[in-house]
């Protein structure tokens, strides 16, 4: 497998510390509200990564935290506690909010065929571990106490910006919110390890510590939970691209200061999902959820396919027009598969060849779009239906698109048969090559030829789709 490593800024062959055992950590949700579909894009792609590793024969232990305390509205450790904000909004306790939205998150994951990690650990379970790591950082001189809080001193590090490639002059005080600077910090990039002077009189969750009653900062959680379950050497750390700075940068700082050696070898980051107004965010108020997509009549797996048709390191723009096209294509694909006859003997040699091709394609920095293309290639292959079904089901161990669970529907069989589908796709590919060669006359003639047959092409950022008029 090759993956793009954010740490080295290049695509690298993945070599875990242990030959066949992979320690994988995923930053989990802050459970103060529903996850929007932009959040879930990261979890979908991390799910594919885990399943591809397993498909290639690795034993994977995947750990994920649940942030139920300590995440303030600004990543720069200021603003309001997100969990308290959720509790105020709904007139519930913080733990009631945490339980409700944790359950909602895993319900969404189930609908999207996202596998539950091997270990899921709420931050509130690990207070002793947080206090232990912070105490050691203070003893080693990497942390200091000011204004009652405990801070990590980033000036003690030679390469604080190694992951993000930022420099101090480029940084804003509030990373996600425009907030006041914390005057207790010696350096503006320092971050809170433990709060003891909360500005919220009704802060619900507090614990005794050597520095007074308080609660942990957000960043310390992932370092402790990861090392608790995966040890002091980590193969692979995943998250959204907005976690790179300061969250993952701070994780590296405190973990390597604590352990005294390099902590994590590979960093995997998924780019934003945008709408026409920009990056999706809960702070905008209304935001798209899996439940909302269901209310509008979409199968959540259609959204998974929408994500898999684009590369995880590219921004992806959401629109209902594109989702409609994906839904139509998904329906056609499942119907083609449903028509296959499962009788006959499976050609195991051919299946093994296709498995190796799939590993080479999807294992090349998680090229899921090409993985889906291989499903179409199998449908066109010169072999019996039983073999095709076997191979597609095997691919779906990674893609998780329920490809072999479909039933033939009347409107599908009446619109485009398999020969016509193959013809249309070949013409779309031919037109794409013409456009790439700047042969626009040929590209236009292909569009016109299809239009004359009642086939209307639609060019989107994710590729070309079609409708039958």
Task: Provide a quick synopsis of the model.
The protein contains 15 helices and 16 strands. With 469 residues, it is α/β, with parallel strands linked by helices.
Mean pLDDT: 89
Biggest sheet architecture: 5 strands, parallel
Low-pLDDT ranges: 168-179, 410-415
SS-derived structural category:
alpha/beta
* Count of DSSP strands: 16
Radius of gyration: 25 Å
Task: Characterize the structure shown.
The protein has 469 residues and is an alpha/beta fold. The protein is built from 15 helices and 16 strands. The chain has helices spanning 37-55, 82-90, 94-111, 127-139, 218-230, 244-259, 290-295, 300-308, 320-338, 348-362, 368-380, 385-399, 410-415, 418-436, 440-452; strands spanning 2-5, 10-13, 21-26, 59-66, 119-122, 143-146, 149-152, 191-195, 215-216, 234-240, 264-270, 273-275, 278-279, 316-317, 455-460, 463-468. The strands form 5 sheets. It has a 5-stranded parallel β-sheet, sandwiched between helices. A 4-stranded antiparallel β-sheet has the order 6-7-8-9. Helix 1 crosses helix 8 (300-308), helix 8 packs across helix 9 (320-338) and helix 11 runs antiparallel to helix 12. The protein is elongated, with a radius of gyration of 25 Å. The protein starts with a strand and ends with a strand. Residues 168-179 and 410-415 have low confidence and may be disordered.
